[in-house]
Design a protein that fits this description.
Length: about 250
């Protein structure tokens, strides 16, 4: 609807009427007319109007308004990644994820391995005493505690001596870490096997150490892939991680 002097759903002067004239200079003023979409609506709204010149000549036109989904918290989480909006907002409200700057989440950026461990610790309330860490995780770094906890719990194993916390995490490594976390927390899933990957054309690219974890998450519906592809060795984005964690928690 169109409203005049709209402040909130219950506070406005009037619903705009087709029979009322609104003026550029004068009252009621056209600049005080607001369009308010129905809750949950997305799409294009076309509004017809009749306008008048200063000499009284009339002409007809249309105004098109695109109503799109958008995150409540991040300006860069919008209709371009509508599939991740609910997950990102939910995890932000739960304190699981943070933005990279004021009003920005950077959803298409690669997720760093260290950042992912922080998310796992927060999302699944991972806690443990620890006595050390991987050699390449600096003491005092913002992800030190999360990685140390995950290492002590057997979730983060790295290559034995290093973890590469600032490197992007691959999709298959993220799945392995998620599967280990779920098992530790007693979140039982029906174990998958290579047959559950048959529908993916790039299943042969899944590393041997990751097959069980990837297959189990696929079988459970947590991982769906895209266009018959798993892209196991591709880097996972910040938006994709949010969706994976959201599906588990919900």
């Amino acid at each position: 609807k169109l409203y005049y002097n709209y402040a909130s759903p219950k506070v406005y002067e009037a619903v705009v009427a087709a029979t009322t004239k609104y003026y550029v200079n004068g009252t009621p003023n056209i600049s005080n007319v607001s369009f308010v979409p129905n809750t949950g609506y997305t799409g294009t709204v076309t509004i017809g109007y009749t306008a008048y010149t200063s000499t009284g000549t009339s002409y007809n036109g249309t105004l098109k308004i695109n109503v799109v989904e958008k995150s409540k918290y991040f300006n860069d989480v919008d209709q371009n990644i509508s599939w991740a909006i609910e997950a990102i907002d939910y995890l932000y409200e739960k304190g699981v994820i943070n933005g990279v700057d004021t009003g920005l989440y950077s959803p298409s950026s690669n997720m760093k391995r260290g950042d992912f461990m922080i998310i796992l610790c927060k999302a699944f309330n991972l806690k443990s005493a620890y006595t050390g860490n991987f050699a390449d995780v600096p003491i005092g770094s913002y992800y030190y505690d999360a990685i140390a906890i995950a290492k002590a719990l057997g979730i983060a194993q790295g290559d034995g001596s290093s973890f590469s916390p600032d490197s992007p995490i691959t999709r298959q490594d993220a799945m392995v870490l998620v599967a280990r976390t779920m098992e530790l927390k007693g979140m039982k899933l029906t174990k998958g096997n290579s047959e559950d990957l048959a529908k993916f054309t790039d299943r042969g690219q899944v590393s041997t150490y990751a097959i069980d974890a990837v297959a189990t998450l696929v079988k459970s519906g947590i991982i769906e892939g895209s266009d018959s592809l798993l892209n196991p060795k591709g880097n996972v984005t910040r938006a994709e991680i949010a969706v994976i964690v959201y599906r588990i928690l919900k």
